[in-house]
């Protein structure tokens, strides 16, 4: 059959997480609370890092960027999902689906590259503390951040460019709560084996940069172990704490991404649960990972809270 004779699908029905109204309402309550916590936690970190001059360092600059990206990443899917949970089986236009897919992979790609930069930053801080300010200066940090944005943009453009090639003539039911490559490519009414291979390769290049993030951990442990007889400085202790938090965050991000994207695009029972994990749960937990054991952030948070109380005090009277 000639693909030119296909009638192009103009929209997709998002099947979401469940067709049972009671479950959808329960999901709405749970995910509304999670999205509120994600928004509050990540924007609070951005405000703290921006307002406290003591946190104007490379490590906290990268942490602030990660929090901003987490807020944007969850906002790409969560608000629409919350509305759809109450609306039933909503329809998203083909253009709207591609737009959501672009920004989803754009922000997600930036996060992956940024996590790699953060791992390198912690490795330098622990292994070469005396040369840290020379190696990770503002220029280098800015260039690495810009490279992360460029890398995320290229990754996302490639995904969109590949997904618009095959014709979509039906069915039009997308078995997910947001538009993503694995579910969308299966609705194409032509052979997509080559496209799937290209997409898996593209996603694999991104998600398998994770080993580079993990590889810094043994080096840091070896570096600190070689200085075991000496007490760690405050900066080294802070770096180790941040490194442990970073490994936990990377695990929660890369493992689900490898499960979803670095394999053939087939449907498995755990797919939606894993999608919820990296779109909703991980962005909510990141602020806790990076603040609960970080004394500098906690002190800055208390300082910001006291400042707000001082500003609101006269207004109450």
TrEMBL record:
InterPro entries, A to Z: GPCR_Rhodpsn, GPCR_Rhodpsn_7TM, Olfact_rcpt, Olfactory_Receptors
Q: Which residues cross the membrane?
A: 25-48, 60-82, 102-120, 132-158, 239-261, 273-292
Q: Where in the cell is it found?
A: Membrane
Pfam families found in the cross-reference section: 7tm_4 (PF13853)
In alphabetical order, the GO MF annotations are: G protein-coupled receptor activity; olfactory receptor activity
Name all G-protein coupled receptors family 1 profile domain ranges: 41-290
Membrane topology is: Multi-pass membrane protein
Keywords, ordered alphabetically: G-protein coupled receptor, Membrane, Olfaction, Receptor, Sensory transduction, Transducer, Transmembrane, Transmembrane helix
**Gene3D superfamilies recorded:** Rhodopsin 7-helix transmembrane proteins
GO cellular component term of the entry, any: plasma membrane
Give the protein's function: Putative odorant or sperm cell receptor.
Q: What is this protein called?
A: Olfactory receptor family 4 subfamily D member 5
Q: Which organism is it from?
A: Equus asinus
